[in-house]
Write a structure and sequence with these properties.
Number of strands: 26
Strand order of the largest sheet: 3-4-2-1-5-6-7-8
EC number: 2.4.1.14
Strand content: 5-15%
Distance between the termini: 75 Å
Radius of gyration: 32 Å
Family: Belongs to the glycosyltransferase 1 family.
Catalytic activity: beta-D-fructose 6-phosphate + UDP-alpha-D-glucose = sucrose 6(F)-phosphate + UDP + H(+)
Number of helices: 35
Pathway: Glycan biosynthesis; sucrose biosynthesis; sucrose from D-fructose 6-phosphate and UDP-alpha-D-glucose: step 1/2
Organism: Ziziphus jujuba
């Protein structure tokens, strides 16, 4: 077996029952026993290297077998299994190497094309700028923010911010979140992130200029969790702050939004199908709270969030949708990143990409992180390493291209529609007011506390030790393989001098029964317990079963009292908040050299960094600190002296300065609409005022107004030109609207109940009992009209009474919809609205077509255009897409034109392309990658059974248009029923989630499945068809549709 000789050699060694071999390099245990065993070496060094639990069990069974022949047979079988694993690992490593090489080539090609589009020569500044202070296309802060180094500086800054009254929304969805007695370590979802977001919300709530902070999370009312997680609202009381003089709704709050299974606590990997439901619930809360704050501090005008901040991928996805629905800035913190995790697991060589995705839904997570890059104004990281080594793995962030864009911004040169988020390093903060570092001597009684009785957790730990006076090595982490606790125990067990000088304390979350723990955590804990037994560490290692969050400070104090050391040996640590906590109590540190601890050590200079894979390095560093009292004292002093640089006020000051530098955005009509239509009045004057406030543009063209695209804001530097163009368009629109208003008034005075009149049309959404959204992506035009007819027929009585309204939601442009409706015998006035061009345009019917240059009886919602134009690439994006289409056509020259620009179907915010053969062009995920690599942010949709490609703004979609209608007109999303086919366009998944009802017409649009054949992740990862607000109908018979509506509670009888 060429290439597998090592297997044969090990097999021979195992089967050889000859005398033991002396080996100077063998492990301590083997040296102590005076002989080397090939079998033992094979199992310890080879099998454990693969970290396969089942192999270890096989070894245990083999070792327990009395018959030599049976034992040897079992060991031989294990050898073959190891060989198969090695072959699989090599295969996966080869595939990953190919992926990395391909990604590098794609990025270099994209960077070259982007640079070619941006024709200006690069300045020296573009080549030499530091990566850390990455700027966005908005207001550029002059230089780096200085740190707060004194009380005077903080007070001066506070005076400057006092007049501001920010409303900030934070989102953290998974895990169990509450303000007090956090159950950190209860499971893998309730860890450091939970503590971080709670303390961030609490700290921001006490800052000058901040009026209210809402931390949105999931409401959990499951029997296996505490009842407090089911409380809708929890106020976060500040630790030290004067709350006098604050308003009624001011402060920081945890707001729990119900979504997902009502009585079940589920892991974050299973939350994806329920994200839209959270977004709708959060949208309702934010809208209501904005109005409440408007009454208190906004002079009657809603006070919208100054930023929506998502934490982790699931919350980032939610924050992106909320940011788009509300048109407010988004901030994102990844905490840990999916691409980095994927690469780390692939390097282990045990699972393929597909197998990893089944377990972790990793591809959905990565897409959420890419979307967060598309939408975020600011991405907050804890360390520079996170930017340079983790974020650069993403299609949507390229440090080199970012530097080029930043240099162009500084020079006032157009970026041709390209955008990058601003990456900002802001280390997490910490509360230090309650911390009093221990100054006692090691000879003091560790069982006694100078300030009173010793905390109970001290006795719980001390009971493990035969000599509790020795310095304590403290590790505080979940029993997770990536935390590398097993290597720490092994290093401690095999270093006799370290064992003689110190004790080891392992705080590994809470447990009742190991058998009830998750498989991974249980296997790590069992491995640790076996090593304690193997090295006979009884009396030297503590591993208590329980501790409360409130006990953690006492644990740090105990370790400091014994002149101990804190260690974080993780393979990679995104930040390392526990290192800062330990330093605040006077504990020197030993930490991994991979990730955030490098930056922390640079600031604090209070310990040593080690290679987490090097067991000897870990043991040497620990031994050095506990044995050298002068070094220990110097590290302790350095940590205490510099720890204020990680305080929460410092963090929040930098945070708020960054948020304030974002270009302010809010619902567009807010700036001109001093009397928002919230009254629900039926008077014609209310309707007319709404039309005026919309600045509705009636200038439509059957051919599409292609030239409007060139007037789109390409980047933030084109602001003046964009404003001039927008003013020109709105002025023309208002002129046309005034003519329409006269006609509308006449119609209203003569026919108050005439359905064709637009007098009462615009505010009608909130007056309807239900709104039916027909979003069926039918394979054939004839079918499409018939489906509309059957749905209308199913609710004819209710429709005639005006209790049900209809919205048409389609990938077609308005110029394509009108002849289709006319041919089918429908009038535009039969519908309340039209969501067109895959959600990039929103129209309402009008009875005044004679005032429109094109003669079409529609008015366009210009506010919706403004609402969704964020980061729209305009002409720069169009050129890139045209170049891509040309390259596809050139490659398939003999096939003719595979992709061609559809000028008649294009609009200012939708670039349409005709597709001849879907099989000959890349799937939508490849197109997304192409645009993201070139820093172009957009939403790509294959539609009409793969014969058309629509490219629209990144925050526009058919689902988002419904949320806009809720924000603008008060349309109750829970009263909306969306009709879809069994499959649909590539934006199909966005239509299915949320609080609205969904009726799926089985057998309709089944051919569209081919559009979803090559996805990043399967639809099943994001759609759960067994939700209670789903109903399925075979075909589209009106009786069956009515029956399904009855099951959903829409119709009675």
């Amino acid at each position: 077996m060429a290439g597998n000789d090592w297997v044969n050699s090990y097999l021979e060694a195992i089967l050889d029952v000859g005398p033991g071999l002396d080996d100077a390099k063998s492990s301590l245990l083997l040296r102590e026993r005076g002989r080397f065993s090939p079998t033992r070496y094979f199992v310890e060094e080879v099998i454990t290297g693969y970290d396969e639990t089942d192999l270890h069990r096989s070894w245990v069974r083999a070792a327990a077998t009395r018959s030599p022949q049976e034992r040897n047979t079992r060991l031989e079988n294990m050898c073959w299994r190891i060989w198969n694993l090695a072959r699989k690992k090599k295969q996966l490593e080869g595939e990953e190497a190919q992926r990395v090489a391909k990604r590098r080539l794609e990025r270099e090609r994209g960077r070259k094309e982007a640079t070619a589009d941006m024709s200006e020569d690069l300045s020296e500044g573009e080549k030499g700028d530091v990566l850390g202070d990455i700027s966005a296309h908005g207001d550029i802060p002059k230089g780096r923010m200085k740190r707060i180094n004194s009380v005077d500086v903080m007070e001066n800054w506070a005076k400057q911010q006092k007049e501001k009254k920010f409303y900030i929304v934070l989102i953290s969805l998974h895990g169990l979140i509450r303000g007090e007695n956090m159950e950190l370590g209860r499971d893998s979802d309730t860890g450091g992130q939970v503590k971080y977001v709670v303390e961030l919300a609490r700290a921001l709530g006490t800052m000058p200029g901040v009026y209210r902070v809402d931390l949105l999370t999931r409401q959990v009312s499951a029997p296996d969790v505490d009842w407090t997680y089911g409380e809708p609202t929890e106020m976060l009381n500040p630790h030290m702050s004067d709350t006098s003089g604050l308003g009624e709704s001011s402060g920081a709050y945890i707001i729990r939004i119900p979504f997902g299974p009502k009585d079940k606590y589920i892991q974050k990997e299973h939350l994806w199908p329920h994200i839209p439901e959270f977004v709708d619930g959060a949208l309702n809360h934010i809208t209501q709270m904005s109005r409440v704050l408007g009454e208190q501090i906004g002079g009657g005008q809603p006070v919208w969030p100054v930023a929506i901040h998502g934490h982790y991928a699931d919350a980032g996805d939610s924050a992106a949708l909320l940011s788009g629905a509300l048109n407010v800035p988004m901030v994102f913190t990844g905490h840990s990143l999916g691409r980095d995790k994927l690469e780390q697991i692939l390097k282990q060589g045990r699972q393929s990409k597909e197998e990893i995705n089944v377990t972790y839904k990793i591809m959905r997570r990565i897409e959420a992180e890419e979307l967060s890059l598309d939408v975020s104004e600011i991405v907050i990281t804890s360390t520079r390493q996170e930017i340079e080594e983790q974020w650069r793995l993403y299609d949507g962030f390229d440090p080199i291209l970012e530097r080029k864009l930043r240099a162009r911004i500084k020079r006032g040169v157009s970026c041709h529609g390209r955008f990058m988020p601003r990456m900002v390093v802001i280390p997490p903060g910490m509360e230090f007011h309650h911390i009093v570092p221990h100054d006692g001597d090691i000879d003091g009684e560790v069982e006694r506390n100078e300030d009173g009785p010793a905390p109970p957790i001290w006795a719980e730990i001390m009971r493990f030790f035969s000599n509790p006076r020795k310095p304590m090595i403290l590790a505080l982490a979940r029993p997770d393989p990536k935390k590398n606790i097993t290597t720490l125990v092994k290093a401690f067990g095999e270093c006799r001098p370290l064992r003689e000088l110190a004790n080891l304390t392992l705080i590994m979350g809470n447990r009742d029964n190991i058998d009830e723990m998750s498989g991974t955590n249980a296997s790590v804990l069992l491995a640790i317990l076996k090593m304690i037994d193997k090295y006979d560490l009884y009396g030297q290692v503590a591993y208590p079963k329980h501790h409360r969050q409130a006990d953690v400070p006492s644990i740090y104090r105990l370790a400091a009292k014994t002149k101990g050391v804190f260690i974080n040996p993780a393979f990679i640590e995104p930040f390392g908040l526990t290192l800062i906590e330990a330093a605040a109590y006077g504990l020197p540190m030993v930490a991994t050299k991979n990730g955030g601890p490098v930056d922390i050590h640079r600031v604090l200079d209070n310990g040593l960094l080690v290679d987490p894979h090097d067991q000897q390095s870990i043991a040497d560093a620990l031994l050095k600190l506990v044995s050298d009292k002068h070094l220990w004292a110097r590290c302790r002093l350095n940590g205490l002296k510099n720890i204020h640089l990680f305080s929460w006020p410092e963090h929040c000051k930098t945070y708020l300065s960054r948020v304030a530098s974002c270009k302010p955005r809010q619902p567009q009509w807010q700036s001109s609409d001093s009397q928002a239509d919230n009254s629900g009045s039926d008077s014609p004057s209310d309707s007319l005022r709404d039309i005026q406030d919309l600045s509705l543009n009636l200038k439509l063209s059957l051919d599409g107004d292609k030239n409007e695209g060139s007037a789109t804001v390409d980047n933030a530097l084109d602001t003046e030109d964009a404003l001039d163009e927008k003013n020109r368009v709105e002025k023309a629109a208002l002129t046309l609207s005034k003519g329409v208003l006269g006609g509308t008034q006449k119609a209203g005075s003569s026919e108050k109940e005439d359905r064709s009149s637009s007098t009462n049309k615009f505010p009608s959404f909130k007056k309807r009992k239900n709104i039916f959204v027909i979003a069926v992506d039918s394979d054939a035009t004839s079918n499409y009209i018939e489906i509309i007819e059957k749905i209308a027929e199913a609710v004819k009585k209710e429709r005639d009474s005006g209790s049900i309204g209809f919205i048409l939601s389609t990938a077609l442009s308005i110029s394509e919809i009108y002849p289709l409706l006319t041919k089918g015998g429908f009038s535009p006035s039969d519908f309340d609205g039209f969501i067109c061009s895959s959600g990039s345009e929103l129209y309402y019917p009008s009875s005044n077509s004679e005032d429109s240059p094109s003669g079409l009886p529609f008015v366009v919602d210009l506010d919706y255009r403004s609402h969704t134009e964020y980061r729209w690439g305009g002409e720069g994006l169009r050129k890139t897409l045209v170049r891509w289409a040309s390259s596809v056509n050139d490659k398939k020259g003999e096939q003719g034109k595979i992709v061609s620009e559809d000028e008649s179907g294009s609009t200012a915010h939708c670039f349409a392309f005709k597709v001849k053969d879907l099989a000959l062009i890349p799937p939508v995920k490849e197109l997304r990658k192409l645009t993201r690599i070139q820093a172009l942010r957009c939403h790509l949709v294959y539609s009409q059974n793969g014969t058309k490609l629509n490219v629209i703004p990144v925050l526009a979609s058919r689902a988002q248009a419904l949320r806009y209608l809720y924000i603008r007109w008060g349309m109750d999303l829970s009263k909306v029923v969306v009709f879809v086919g069994e499959c649909g366009d590539t934006d199909y998944e966005g239509l299915l989630g949320g609080i609205h009802k969904t009726v799926i017409l089985k057998g309709v649009a089944t051919e569209a499945r081919k559009l979803h054949a090559n996805r990043n992740y399967p639809l099943e990862d994001v759609i759960s068809f067994d939700m209670p607000n789903f109903a399925q109908v075979e075909g589209f018979k009106s009786n069956d549709i009515r029956t399904s509506l009855g099951k959903l509670g829409i119709l009675k009888g």
